[in-house]
Specification:
Elements lengths: L10 H13 L2 H11 L3 H4 L6 H4 L11 H6 L7 H11 L3 H25 L9 H5 L20 H6 L14 H19 L2 H10 L1 H11 L4 H7 L4 H18 L18 E6 L5 H8 L3 H7 L15 E6 L3 H7 L11 E5 L6 H8 L3 H7 L13 E5 L1
Antiparallel strand pairs: 1-2, 3-4
Helix pairs in contact: 1-2, 6-14, 7-10, 10-11, 11-12, 11-14
Length: 383
C-alpha cells in the first residue's frame, strides 16, 4: 500500500462527513476518501461554528451518551471532533492496529457483555482507547492488559498475578472483572460518563471533585477543570473512537484494517498442566497462536497448581485435540504440594523427600536449569 501523508482534519472536512451520515448523500460519501487524500486538507479552515455548520446533526437534548454516539450528535462537542481529527491523523497507526486486533478479541468480549446484560454493548469498545486491544499493553502507571487494570484494583476484582499468570491479560477474566468494575461505578454515579471518568481517574477522586465543585453531572464536572487532563479527556476520546469504529468506511480507515489471523475460538479444559510446545504438537496450532489467545500465561507452561485449566484455541483444532489429548500429559498427579526451597536443598533431595521423580518436578515447573534452584524459591511437587 502506498504511503499516505495524513494531516489533521480541518473542520470543514469533518462537516462533510457528518452531513453525509445524516442526509445519506451518496455523492459526499463517494467524495470523502478523495477529500482526505487531497491538498484540500492543507488549505481548509478550522473556523467552524457547530451551532450553524452542524445543523444537519440531531440535537443532543434528552439523549443519553450512547444514543448520541450512535447517531453522531456527540460530534457537536468540540473535544470529540478534536480527537476524531487526532486519531485519523497523527494517531492513525495506533487506530488501524487497534481496529485490526479488535477483530481478534471482540467476539469473546461481546459474549461476556451479553452474559451480564446490564452494561451497554458500546463499552465493549473501551479497550480500543485503553490499550488498542493489546493484551500485553502496560502503561506508565503499570496498568496492564486490554482493560488497563492496576495491580491494587486487580486484587479487589479477584484477578491473580503471580510468577505463572497475570490475569489482567486474560481476555475473559479481565473482561468479566472490567464489567463488574464498570457496573459498580455506575451504581455509585448513576451516569455512564461519570463511571468512565472514574474508571480512568478513580471513583474517590471523581467523588471528591464533585463535592468540591458542586457538579451534578459530567458536563458540569468537565467545565470545573477539577480533574486531571487525562481524565477530563477520557470520555470524549472514547466517544471519538466509538464514532470512528462504527463508521470505518466513511472515515476511510477500513482499507488499513487487516483481517485477523483466526476469528473463531473455543475453550478446552486441560486435566493437568501442559507445556505449550506439547499442546501445539497435538493440535497443529503454532505456539504463537496459542499464546496470542492466552496472553495471561507468563511461561511456556500452564500453571502447575491448577487442574482443569481453561485454554482457548482455534475452533477448527478442537477435534484434533480431543482425538490426541491422551498423549498430551507428560506428568499426571493426584495432588500437588507447594514447596519452598530451603538453604542447601537440591532438586534430587526434594524429590527423595516426597518420594517422586526429579524429572516430574522439572517438567511441571518448567525448570530450564534444575541445578540453579535458590533458597526461598517456590516449586510444585506432583504426588
Amino acid at each position: 500500500m502506498k504511503n499516505k501523508k495524513y494531516v489533521p482534519f480541518p473542520g470543514f472536512v469533518l462537516f462533510f462527513i457528518l452531513v453525509s451520515v445524516i442526509t445519506a448523500n451518496s455523492s459526499v460519501l463517494t467524495r470523502f476518501p478523495q477529500i482526505v487524500n487531497s491538498g484540500m486538507l492543507q488549505t481548509g479552515s478550522n473556523k467552524i461554528n457547530p451551532a450553524q455548520d452542524f445543523y444537519f446533526l440531531p440535537e443532543l437534548e434528552n439523549k443519553n451518551f450512547f444514543e448520541s454516539i450512535n447517531d453522531m450528535s456527540i460530534c457537536r462537542y468540540k473535544l470529540v471532533r478534536k480527537f476524531i481529527n487526532q486519531y485519523l491523523s497523527e494517531a492513525r497507526s495506533f487506530l488501524a492496529n487497534g481496529l485490526t486486533r479488535s477483530q481478534r478479541y471482540l467476539p469473546v468480549i461481546k459474549e461476556i457483555f451479553e452474559k451480564y446484560g446490564q452494561i451497554p454493548e458500546e463499552l465493549a469498545l473501551l479497550p480500543l482507547l485503553e490499550s488498542g486491544f493489546n493484551p500485553y499493553a502496560t502503561s506508565r502507571s503499570k496498568a496492564v492488559g486490554l482493560w488497563q487494570i492496576m495491580k491494587p484494583t486487580s486484587r479487589d476484582l479477584g484477578l491473580k498475578i503471580n510468577s505463572w499468570v497475570d490475569e489482567r491479560r486474560d481476555i475473559e477474566k479481565s473482561t468479566e472483572a472490567a464489567v463488574r468494575h464498570l457496573c459498580s461505578l455506575y451504581k455509585i454515579f448513576n451516569s455512564w460518563e461519570l463511571a468512565l471518568a472514574a474508571y480512568n481517574g478513580g471513583a474517590a477522586r471523581v467523588k471528591r471533585a464533585m463535592i468540591k465543585t458542586g457538579a451534578e453531572n459530567f458536563e458540569e464536572l468537565l467545565e470545573s477543570e477539577e480533574l486531571r487532563r487525562e481524565t477530563n479527556e477520557f470520555v470524549h476520546r472514547f466517544a471519538a473512537l466509538a464514532v470512528i469504529y462504527r463508521n470505518q468506511e466513511l472515515f476511510d480507515i477500513k482499507s488499513e484494517v487487516n483481517a485477523p489471523e483466526i476469528a473463531e475460538t473455543e475453550n478446552i479444559i486441560l486435566a493437568f498442566p501442559v507445556r505449550i510446545k506439547d499442546l501445539s504438537g497435538i493440535t497443529g496450532v503454532p505456539q504463537d497462536i496459542i499464546k496470542m489467545y492466552n496472553p495471561e500465561l507468563k511461561k511456556n507452561v500452564t500453571p502447575p497448581y491448577e487442574k482443569e485449566y481453561s485454554v482457548r484455541i482455534p475452533k477448527h483444532s478442537v477435534s484434533r485435540y480431543n482425538k490426541n489429548k491422551s498423549k498430551l500429559y507428560a506428568v499426571k498427579f493426584k495432588k500437588l504440594k507447594k514447596h519452598i526451597v530451603r538453604e542447601g536443598e537440591s532438586l534430587s533431595k526434594i524429590a527423595k523427600t516426597y518420594k517422586t521423580k526429579m524429572q516430574k518436578i522439572i517438567q511441571i515447573n518448567n525448570l530450564k536449569n534444575p541445578h540453579l534452584i535458590k533458597p526461598g524459591q517456590e516449586i510444585y511437587v506432583p504426588l
